[in-house]
Target: Prefoldin
Amino acid sequence: MASPLQLKLQALSDEYQNLNKELQETVLARQKLEAQKQENISVQNEFEKLKDDEQIFKLVGPVLLKQDKMDAENTVKGRLEFISKEITRLEGVIKETQGKIEKKRTEIIQVQTSAQAGGAPQAVKA
Model:
């Protein structure tokens, strides 16, 4: 039968692994947004090369629809603004999760140290 100390250590380890998984998922989401941002910047650069009277088409499902240059530029600009805000939000989530991981790591070390010393786990100040 596992001791209370072992159970606490196992629970902390599980929480630590879950936080790391959450961090990996958030970093992956941020990377996807960064790729979308670069793609939209490329489209924006292409718009700058076009003359005002040139035609722009937007792919909607299997159909190409004619679109006004100003509307297309505004759509891409709006997307870039949204993506930038989302990247900023995810960076905050990443920092917060990294902080939680560091606290959990410290807590695990304290429980391990106390187990090796043969004493009860010390309370962790948050």
Helices lie at 4-49, 69-117. DSSP finds two helices and two strands in the chain.
